[in-house]
Design goal:
20 helices, mainly alpha, single chain, disordered C terminus
């Protein structure tokens, strides 16, 4: 395959997708929440979406035209073809804001809360419920303003990204933070704990921005800067893994991620915005509960039955990305992990990208996350994981539960009592030793 041909197609896809900004197109303005609380949080919100800034029909034609130019039938060109299809579907998604069609397209792009894992018959929704049931974090005082957090994030990310990352504060943001190709944006008015600031640095800057920058530095497949098909799951999961591997996550984070997926499932089964908000209100402060509810209903139908499903990918992405890392390390295949860092991709495409690096069509990552630089620590964490997999936690839990019931403890006490009595009886039967002679022992 000629490099120039692939580069031209890749650049055309990158150029065509630039105005397609899904979150920007579906996020609600702050006035929606202001009206919601002004009316006592008793009425369904009425979001108004901004103009897209492009003609969906024309953009669809542009993407289909690029697709027709992809002539070959090989894995690389098939990836480019699928990426054109995915962006075309995203155009349809944002054009369908506020309709049930939006939900159907969202499921096809991002998945569903009840999707199974391709590499294991695990229950994604069950994992979300388990996360939501974990103990709440303590000592998580939010002392950083958005401006202070931005300064600290830039200090953490700058040295590892060549000083090229920008961290800014903006108003129109549903999440507390978001990342672009070279920028991290924090929501104005949000406050953060010290741990959350460090977590955002590693999630947004040293993962999302880092993989974008590595992708755009590709000599041929610049599409790695915007992501290969179905990259969202691994990209979001990798962000949470980055928080975990650098020691900057708490159960509060897992709880929120779990509750987001549960809320999406509720909405998919008919719960409206108010029902989801009241469910989350029992677990979070009002402002946070409202923002989390917006994440579920933005772009969809506030009356229920048609949510935005992107947040349901976090559990699958987290589990699949961690399993990919530990499987690679167990096979002593660090180069496969390195290939995964060369841009935005699904874990399923890392092997292909590694092969393209060997062929010279791709290059390895220029920027590396902190957790990969210390490979010895990463290997040790993988060793810990595969070791503890040898033990069944339910079996271990049952063992200690039996001890807590008193049965095992009572048997142990009785055994100790019998041993003490036996030792005392044996001591009584022994004859006392004769007193020492006066001339025995050391002479002073």
């Amino acid at each position: 395959m000629p490099r120039e041909y692939l580069r031209r197609l890749s650049d055309a896809i990158v150029h065509a997708q630039r105005p397609i900004r899904v979150l920007r197109a579906i996020n609600w303005g702050p006035q929606v929440h202001e009206r919601f609380f002004k009316r006592g949080a008793r009425e369904l919100p009425r979001p108004e979406y901004p103009a897209l800034g492009f003609d969906p029909a024309e953009k669809g034609r542009e993407l289909r035209d690029i697709r027709r130019q992809i002539r070959g039938r090989n894995p690389v060109e098939e990836l480019l073809r699928r990426k054109c299809d995915e962006f075309a579907m995203m155009v349809e998604l944002v054009a369908a804001r506020g309709t049930r069609r939006f939900y159907e397209l969202s499921r096809r792009i991002y998945g569903d809360p009840r999707d199974r894992f391709p590499d294991h018959n695990a229950d994604n929704l069950a994992i979300a419920r388990m996360w939501a049931s974990r103990p709440r974090a303590r000592d998580e005082e939010a002392t950083f303003t958005a401006k202070q957090a931005a300064k600290r994030i830039a200090e953490i990310c700058g040295p590892l990204l060549g000083g090229d990352v920008k961290v800014v504060v903006a108003t129109r943001l549903t999440a507390n933070a978001a990342a672009g190709a070279t920028r991290v944006t924090l929501r104005k008015g949000a406050r953060f704990s010290d741990r959350q600031v460090r977590a955002l640095a590693h999630h947004e800057g040293l993962w999302h921005v880092l993989t974008s920058m590595n992708g755009y530095l590709q000599p041929v497949l610049t599409v790695l800067g915007v992501g290969l098909p179905r990259y969202t799951e691994s990209q979001e999961g990798g962000g949470i893994i980055s928080e975990f591997l650098t020691g900057n996550i708490s159960d509060e984070r897992y709880i929120e991620l779990g509750e987001r997926t549960i809320a999406i499932d509720m909405a998919a089964r008919g719960a409206d915005f108010l029902e989801v908000y009241r469910y989350l209100l029992a677990r979070f402060p009002p402002e946070k509960a409202a923002l989390m509810s917006e994440r579920v209903f933005r772009g969809g139908v506030v009356e229920g039955g048609a949510p935005f499903t992107k947040d349901a990918a976090y559990q699958r992405g987290y589990c699949r990305t961690f399993n990919f890392l530990r499987a690679s390390l167990e096979a002593r295949d660090v180069d496969l992990v390195r290939a995964f860092l060369a841009g935005k991709m699904s874990v399923d495409d890392a092997e292909l990208v590694r092969g393209l690096i060997d062929e010279g069509l791709c290059v390895g990552p220029v920027y590396l996350p902190e957790w990969f630089i210390d490979i010895d620590r990463l290997n040790a964490m993988a060793t810990h994981s595969v070791t503890m997999n040898r033990f069944s936690l339910p079996s271990v839990s049952r063992y200690y539960a039996r001890r807590r019931t008193g049965k095992v403890a009572g048997e142990l006490v009785e055994r100790i009592r019998e041993e003490v009595l036996a030792a005392a009886e044996a001591a009584e039967e022994e004859e006392p030793a004769p007193p020492p002679r006066a001339d025995e022992g050391d002479v002073e």
